[in-house]
Write a structure and sequence with these properties.
The structure holds two protein chains of two kinds.
Chain A: H1 8-15, E1 19-20, E2 23-27, H2 28-31, E3 34-40, E4 43-48, H3 57-72, E5 77-81, H4 94-103, E6 105-106, E7 136-140, E8 148-153, E9 159-163
Parallel strand pairs in A: 4-5, 6-9
Antiparallel strand pairs in A: 1-2, 3-4, 7-8, 8-9
Chain B: H1 3-24, H2 33-61, H3 67-72, H4 83-86, H5 92-113, H6 119-147, H7 151-164, H8 185-202, H9 228-236, H10 238-242
Helix pairs in contact in B: 1-2, 2-6, 5-6, 5-7, 5-8
Classes of the chains: A alpha/beta, B mainly alpha.
Chain lengths: ~170, ~250
Amino acid sequence: MTTSTIDKKTLYAYLDEIKDPEVPVLSIIDLGIVRDIVMHGEEIEIIITPTYTGCPAMDMIAMHIRMMLATLGFKKQKVTTVLSPAWTTDWMSEDGKRKLKEYGIAPPNPRQQVCDDKLFAAAESVQCPLCNSYHTHRISEFGSTACKALYQCDDCKEPFDYFKCH
Amino acid sequence: MNNDLINYTLHLADNSLILGQRNSEWCGHGPILEQDIAITNISLDLIGQARNFYQYAASLKADGSTEDSLAYLKTEREYKNCLLVEQPNGDWAQTILRQFLFSNYQYLLYQQLQSHKDDQLAAIAEKSLKEVTYHLRWSSEWVIRLGDGTEESHNRMLKAIDELWRYTGELFMPADYEKESGIELTVIKDGWNKKVNIVFDDATLIPPSGGGGAFMQSGGKQGKHTEHLGYILTELQYMQRAYPGCEW
């Protein structure tokens, strides 16, 4: 296989092998981080977008993409970061949501519920990824990484991460 | 190259970096674990914004500057952040109030900035706005919780207002490089006052009757800082000064 014969579909499959270092069950395709693949003659450009502006995983993800492209034989390559349109959890794949839940992290709700500046709004109703109860409460809007909030299940009592709507 | 645009971009970057650095001082010292995590998450968002602005400023300058040299290797007078963000953390009330006063401003600013004629500034604002919405909501709720809490927490909020109010006027005084930015500071000021009134009202607090009378400190945007910035830079720049170019 030479670089000129690799089609986009194959490239996406390779990119799907690159995981988010902080949530290793999700690939960068699941997350919706990869926005486009563009060929400029010999040069390949992968366009990505960050989940959160301060996400420390982005540099490592860009490095993994460059290493993967080098392994495939691309000599001229670049990884470009775009900010607009801003990333949203709506771009997360259904497959990604399923994998998150299996991993023990509640996936983002299908519709954004708390993304405005209204105060003391009722916390989003989030399903416990372990026992499936909706009888849960929010402990903190901020969690172990920028993309998560902290919840606890009132039935099985387990605390869990919620990949919050964004 | 357009110097005003570079300076304005650096001003935005410095605001985010210095407040991010200040908030990060809480790491491991927050009043409870969840709020320690909250304030340091806000730090991370702010430092992320700062990186985007510094990267853009470095590309505009095109003189070999990098995001790191612009963040770590400037002298005190070269920082253009407003005075509010460099003020000490004080107690939790003072940190909360500083965050609320600034997030309220940043939220309104980024709303305008996201339709700026400069595409990259607009993109950074659009991207950051979602995060700032979180910061504004979180800090507003805490202002209310403390102001309308116990006698102790209420008094601490009053003290925080005394400490910080004098640094809010500068937010709405345009620096030279800001005048052509297309940002309507008077519109931001109106929205800002409105929000302060709503939140303070719920918090049983009263904004100082500033209206032209209250003395406001200024100078940060032009590089004239309070004594606190030097101490921040000592800590912020230590590694790069002691081990130039160090990475991990």
